[in-house]
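Inputs:
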Amino acid sequence: MRPIERRIDGYLSENLERYIEETAHLCAQPSISARAEGVAECAHLVAQMLEAHGLAVQLFPTPGAPIVYGHAEGASPRTLLFYNHYDVQPPEPLELWTSPPFEPTVRDGALYARGAADDKGELVARLAALDAVRAAHRGTLPCSVTFVVEGEEEIGSPHIASFVQEHLSLLRAEGAIWEGGGIDPEGRPVLTLGVRGILSVELSVQTLARDAHSGAAHRLPNAAWRLIWALASLKGPDERIQIPGFYEGALPPSPLDEQLLDALPVYEELERQIYGVREFVRGMRGKELNRAVFEPTCNIAGLSAGYQGPGMKTVLPARASAKVDFRLVPGQDPEDILGKLRAYLQQAGFGDVSVERLGAMWPAKTAADAPFVALAARSGAEVYGRPALLVPLEGGSTPIYAFAGPLHELPVVFAGVGYWDNRAHAPDEHVRLQDWLNGARHIARILEGFAAL
Amino acid sequence: MRPIERRIDGYLSENLERYIEETAHLCAQPSISARAEGVAECAHLVAQMLEAHGLAVQLFPTPGAPIVYGHAEGASPRTLLFYNHYDVQPPEPLELWTSPPFEPTVRDGALYARGAADDKGELVARLAALDAVRAAHRGTLPCSVTFVVEGEEEIGSPHIASFVQEHLSLLRAEGAIWEGGGIDPEGRPVLTLGVRGILSVELSVQTLARDAHSGAAHRLPNAAWRLIWALASLKGPDERIQIPGFYEGALPPSPLDEQLLDALPVYEELERQIYGVREFVRGMRGKELNRAVFEPTCNIAGLSAGYQGPGMKTVLPARASAKVDFRLVPGQDPEDILGKLRAYLQQAGFGDVSVERLGAMWPAKTAADAPFVALAARSGAEVYGRPALLVPLEGGSTPIYAFAGPLHELPVVFAGVGYWDNRAHAPDEHVRLQDWLNGARHIARILEGFAAL
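Outputs:
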């Protein structure tokens, strides 16, 4: 370890307690975007915190929650951008929390609170890394930094893309660290390089003005049947999506992506245990389970029609609906898929099925051979003592597209304070203090090396 | 009109107010079988009422609500059986009632209360008919009568079949009047002669121990998709049910049934208006809509999986379920269909879809040329001044099978106090006083003619 890193690590260890207190202070402020609870208050608190850490802050209103922007010039004009969010998931069910979600508590080497990991603890770890690097350089940052902290991540980031479009010059950067990184069950740092896009829709059918008695089923059209046939026309048991042109433009993994995928651990047995899986989709096993992330999906997230209580009710439902999400791989465009879905249903005889767009995000992927990726991997290996895992594409979706495209294919990686059982989105969410410290050390090393890339 | 009928009609008109009061008294006693509310109290009240009308009463306990049995000997040993029920549907939503459901109120020539029509008003009309006929014959009934008044009709009559099997000698009869008859929108008496059977099942699939994030949809099996594919394998848009052997034994309408079906009015326009139907099943129109009752059906009464609230949630549901009812025509047997359904799902690759039997009723049908049918039709025509409509088979189901089979193909017809807009099962249920009176006059004439058949 070079002296500079020793100074950084020393600074972070010595000030750990103070930073955990700062994290607890932030977590004590509820900021539940799903019901706009405490969001504005939390935005102001975050703005004060960024200022206290030496950033020049601007608060941008949106039709939803404000976006907190912070910037600090460093010795190099090369800018590293940090994406975080200050909003949290609703804490319910409250009775499953060991200590109340908005009364942060340290026990067994971890801080428990809603937001402790996702994403308030992670944000504070990044601010701490900034302090540590600045201290190690006698007050000067080696590179410039920009922080974007939004307040609507947990509800699909509806305003981040237009914010970026309207403030491109403020956001110029040469690399970005996304939120939500961490380590795998074996303690290896996981660097995610890409995410799938998503198109969420609600399909609904109304065949009648009101429910009828099921004794009329030989005459009156049943909305649930119409919905079932429409859904079955989208995908059969072979899992192939039948919308014409759906796979058009979908990029397969590059040879390097394939190498990285095959080098990843396979969590087949773990998933079998956690989810009680008897058989994976298409009977896949082993490495196939990792490679399949390059397959776009059509998922039913919800089905609703008629009577759903105990016992029977002989009703013929007038209305039926399904929530459907498509996960899209690089090369696919959710707006294009939406058009193809609508056209296909029409052409397949399901013009009575209406399609409401609920939300969309585009896929985004950083080339695995970008120098920025190498820096993040090298730093991670140094901090965690184990080689970093590079994940070319993750199954979920997050609004990287909002930044990466408009900002000239900005390379983006994930690096953070999470671990597999930190209960993000669930009761007893927590961040382990050691993970918090390692996350901050990792970020500090990236800040250290970024100017020279 | 013969003098005897004049005396009967005079008696009923003179005593109308008293009988409506008696109906109101019975309706004021809640008897909601779905939640066992007031059911035992109502059984005792009905027993007292039958006794007050000159019947020898027995109260038979069941594992659910008691069955009230009443019998009176007449001049002829030929016995007419009446099937009624004292339980009612839940009154909710309460806010849609003009007057409270259990505070019976007369307004605009009708009695409003839960049960006013279905089936308490109808029961009292039959007791009134009994009184009127007895009075017209100086205290003697021309035929014997048996009343069976059960308390679980609204929850599928789970105990009526075994009650009949265990008390065959008490129930010997040569004809039966079912509950739930009435007049059509044009004031013609409707005599239903048969009902379809029903098999109700819940199909459910569990693919995972818990819900997962939809970002894993390329790996983890989705219960909603399994359910959709299983349902789509039962019936496609051509409406043909794909279970092998499903239609085996299903009897087509007899030539007389076809004549009667074609003589029935077609309510195509009315149904288009009430239900906002754009297109009927299989594009049917006109008389086809009546004939189609001889087609058995497979109806989805409910669908449930995953997230059903507003907006989106990117969840992959572990569990999905559907309520399905099959309406069966004469010649089909629900237990046989259940076995065939299970075998088919297994063979079609849906062994993971479990089938829970929720309930069953067998079809039942009285021959349209039975002399008892002619008596009911003749009497109806006399009371209503219009020829009776004979409906060989109705789309719904009711436990006629429990009586008709064990009691040597007992002929059963419907005749009652209902009309199309009496809001049975809905808020503002009511019986019009004129309908009540006509219903009682009709029953009295059947009692009059029954001994001589």
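Remarks. Residues 433-450 of chain B form the longest helix (18 residues). Chain B touches chain A through 78 residues (CB under 8 Å).
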